[in-house]
Every structure is written in C-alpha cells, then in structure tokens.
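input
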Amino acid sequence: MKNCDSQILKYQRDEVKLSDEDRLDIKDKADTNRERLKGGLQAAEKPTPIGMHTQGSYSMKTMIQEEDGDYDIDDGVYFEKDDLVGPRGGEMSARDVREMVCEALQDSRFKRAPEVRKNCVRVYYNDGYHVDVPSYRKIKVKDPISGELKTAWELAGPDWKRSDARAVTKWFKTANSTRCSDASADGNRGQFVRITRLMKKFAKSRASWKSKTISGFAISRLVEECYLEIRGRNDQALRRTMQQIRDRLEVNDEIDHPTLSDENIVDAGSPKVAFFRDSLDENLRHLENLDDPDCTHEQAMKAWDRVFNSDWFKEQPDPDAEKKLDGRMSSGPFIKQGEARYAASEGRFA
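output
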C-alpha cells in the first residue's frame, strides 16, 4: 500500500483534532455554565448537585473540528435520589428534574433561552457552541452475584433509565491505553484515538450525511471492536479499520453498549447503520489505487481527498520528489568541487 502515513498524521493533527485553544474555550464555557446552574438552583432553594462532570467526546478526547462551529459539549449534573423530591414530598419525575435544571440555567444574556430536550437541557451560545446538561440521580442496586448493594446512576430522559457516562469514558480511555503502544496518560494521543477521530471526521465529511449516519458514540464502539494497531502506519490502520467495520456491519448491524450489558447503542435494522456501512464500502473503493506499486503521490492524495471530501491532500508536497531534489543539490557542481578540494587536501583522489 502506498505510504501516506505522514499525510494522514498531519491531516489528523491540523484538520481533525480539536485544538488546545478550542478545548480551553469549551472548558471555560462549561465551567461558567456550572456556576450558573449552581447559583440558579441555590437561589430557587432546589437540591444541591453532588457533582458535575464533562463526558462524551470531550472527555474521551475525540471531539473533532466542526466547520460550522456547532460543538456539542456534554456536561452532566449529578444528584442524590433522596434529594429529588417535589413540593408534596413525592419523588421527582425525570421530566421534573430536567425542567428544574432548565429553569436554573436561564440567563437574560442568552439570545436563545436554554430548553428542555429529550435527554438533557440544551444551553445555546451565540458563537455556535451548545452545552448539553444531562441530569443523573444516584441509586443503589443489588449485585446479582454477591447480593451487595452498589452505587449506580440513572439518567433523566423520557423516564429514569440506567446510564453512566463516566463509565463510558473510562472504557474508552482503557481501550486507548491498552490497544496501542503510543498512548499517552491523558488519553490525548495514541493511534487508537487518532483512528477514532478520523472515522468520525469521515462520517461528517458531507453535510448531507450528518442526519443519515450513526452517532460518534456508535463509531467509537465500532472502532474499539475492529481496530488493530499497525505501528508507524496510521494510514494502513485507518484503512484496515474501515474495512473491518464494513465487514462487521455486513454480518451484524447491531451495535451494543460497551458498559451496559442489556443495552444497545443502535438496534438491528437501523437505516443509519446501513447508510454508514454503504458509505464505507463506496469510499474504500477509492483507496484501491494505493495497492498499485506504480501508484503516484498525486493519485494517492486524490484518493484520500475523495474519502474525506476535501482538497487538503492535493496540496501536500511529494516527499519522494523533495528527496530527489535534495539528492541533486548534494551532487551538484559546487558540492563536487568542494569534495574534490577536500580530497586533495587529504592527499586522496576525489
């Protein structure tokens, strides 16, 4: 396969991975939002959260650059179940909790007011960002084997539902640290996380795909299932992961949850899974030229541009051409003359 590792690495770094500056901006917004929520709950004499935690792609370090600036940040708020009681002492419903959080987040400075969504409260920012605030309550469940009571979490969706986003983050970071040899302690580096970002970039590479294809969480799960490290060849690892996911989805189109044994991210028969599989199959054909031993740099860059629907790769210089140029310069007349003079001074023939 034509070696395009350096180009894929550079594309991932410059065009896919969220910059440190943008990550800091997102963190600042999340922190401001937390203070607003805590203040609003306190002013209304509502329950005090026992914790707030960023989750999803931000915490897993797989958030990618968005051309329209529409970044989706998940920042969960956690409560004790016994604190979530209504005015008559009854248990608050999942809807009641989301409405309570939404009311606490209201701010006259917002052009668009925070609103209750199916599984969270969404806070809109003027520069395109939005922060989703899902609400959780802590419960106790009996371990089916030991019989001991253990802590678990329920999400305030249409109803209360078992969920633990922090466990998902731990699952992903463990996969990165154990599945690739170049992982960093903070989870920000590693071939596994790079391939996940690139797969998410591919899934969003056409504006018309966004509503038709699977979620970033589903993609992360598929990458975890199908990824195999290829040291020093991120381009090969990406192509192989695409092939493995396509083949896997042809056999089984159900995507199970990584931390909840009785849950699926996507059930069998989903048209979004079929769309993603077909998109992979169609674009993998563009990469077949890379197997030709006579494949040129221009042909290889054109293939990757077609996969990512970009014009970035065609602007990348041919490293082989640069090596040839360097070689010609090192063997040029002035270099030759210098070598001859040096040889003569040493009493040798050039």
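quick obs: The longest helix spans residues 20-43.
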